[in-house]
Amino acid sequence: MAKQDIPGRRPTTQQVPAEAAKTYAWPSSPKLIGTSIMRIDGPDKVTGRAKYTFDIARPGMIYGKLIRSPHAHARIVSINLAPARQAPGVKAVFEWKSAGSEVMYQGDAVVAIAAETESQVNDAARLVRIEYEILPHLINETQGLKPDAPRVFQDGNTSSSSLQETGDLDAGFKAAAHIVEAEYSTHVITHVCLESHGAVCEWDGDNLTAWVSTQGVHATRQQIARNLKIPETNVRVICDHMGGGFGSKVAADAPIIAAARLAKEAGRPVKLMLDRKEEHLDGGNRPSAFARVRAGVSVDGMLTAFEATTWGTGGAGQAANFPLPYIYQFPNRRREHTNVYINAGLQRPMRAPGHPQGCFVTEVLMDELADRANMDPLELRLKNLPPTAPDAMWREYYQMGAERFGWDRRHPTGDPTPGPIKTGMGISANTWGGGGRAGNAHIDILSDGSVTVKCGTQDLGTGTRTIVPLIAAETLGLPLTAITAEIGDSALPFAGVSGGSTATAGVGPAVRIAAGLARDALFARVAPTLGVDPEALVTNNSRIQSKDTPSTGMSWKDACKLLGAEPISVDGQWEPGLSSVNTSGVQFAEVAVDIDTGIVKVKRILAIQDCGLVLDKLTTESQVYGGVIGSLNFALFENRLLDQRTGQMVNPNMESYLLGSMADIPEIDVVVVDQPERGIIGVGEPPTVPTASAIANAVRNATGATIRSLPLHPDRVLAALQQTKTGGATV
Predict the structure, then answer these.
(1) Global pTM value
(2) Which of 267, 314, 474, 693 has the fewest Cβ atoms surrounding its Cβ within 10 A?
(3) Start-end of H helices in 17-145
């Protein structure tokens, strides 16, 4: 996999820096920042020393389980816990829902139970007697939109529609030389975290310690306390390592609260982790998206009008909106959106919420408009990018990518090469907000020269455990190995949720400022001994010295000896000026399609991604790789399937819920655009956005068949090819 970074080339609009941010601005000539740093926790992870929530074992620990509804929609008539209470090993059991209440989807929790062993809790769970009255269910968006559909949800099956309008739609369509009318859709997928959701909870009197697989130790502490009606100070949440979250682990959901309540009732630590089926049913999902679109383009390739009716579902009582028409400029547009509620598991935020869906609809539409206007898809896009976009560089990225990828070798729609294997190229773009959230960091410098950074953030596997000491080491002029970082504990200084590509942009400035304050405090202690003004001192290679007379100085360890019994202990907090918002990127894809089997093979992808200041080049590239691979699964493999008759998920397992293998991963060429003048933005979300649409456009270029719905399974590709042959509608 080829990698390359290019320098940033333009100013940006940023927040006015606060005083501390100006004082401790990012270094212009860093020694560590921007280089490729191996993950500090890498050896622990590959050797198994890293402890995840799933690995936690406490003395006297017992095992919890949630008994879930097998029905998509039902009323609970009665619950009999007596046989389960008498089962061997049972220590606690309670009703999560009571008789008379409704379950709204398969997997909705009804009863919580805990026993000495996993086998005992499973045996006891089978003894719980729950009588249900089966109620009508809605299992897809079409059902939910029908006016004669049964009223399944108390407040109705849909939300009130939202309407967005600008310009003169009629005039826009009159100006159009070509009009595309089509319907596009994306499907529901689950999060499929490598480590499932769950917690280990242990009480000491009125104080609770919870080891949780969570994206926010402080937020989870707050939610637990609120749910249990106890002071936050009585709750400690720990997340040492986490096997993925992708947005699904931002809340203290049922397994966490149930584990805490079971532990209280049993007087024993309780471990409650979801199994793979539960993870699919109730671990969260990405909502669907449907768009009925009418769009026009002028004879010279200028977009004139866009009209869309859109809808989607996030499950039972959840919204499913998405940005549209994404980044391109339609001067006249109208959009009406409706959220549809169905009896299926709840949506949770999933990498760039709404953006992969909105991007897919818009970018596939753009290729269709280009064909109608007899234009190269790249040319059409360049003509219709926003005229002013101070924080986006799509034009430069498209042009750079076209040269690097060999776009000039792209053939018109439909590969004329004989034989069943057809190749094609496609493109797409992304945008994302990013930026930092308020957070704090604490640094201690002791007389033995040791440095500890403390911050209540958490590492999702994105490299935070490396980034935190990296920033401190850069600021203090020390090697990375000289810094100890403590994260993943709500007892540490506050940090926000790791989500929205905001974790590093929130924590990073706080660490930079804390380290800068600690450095200056050490300078003040050292300066009298050296006979220089503190402002004349700098740190360099584990040495404190005069910037004008480098021979005047001392080693870091000798300087710290001067601290004696009074260590340096300082706090720093996020301030504007060291982070920024708004990122952009583009992706190019090349595919090979077997028109006899319908199998799509992605050959290569080029991802060009801006993320502001690159702290660790290796970690940044890894984030882009991960985003591309995740969205490749979204495009080609994953799909939550529900049985129309029962409302149950057909494939809640890793056998029939498809994911790509190593053999399916293409050559991925990553270009990281380093723009240090912008500060930190974040990069976790945006690379996930354009991959699916770039692949879909490449399939269209290869075969001549337009597939307007994901996933690109072989049966859908074959159907589109057949319909193209017969002149029918595309799929």
Answers:
(1) 0.95
(2) 267
(3) 19-23, 42-47, 82-85, 118-125, 141-145
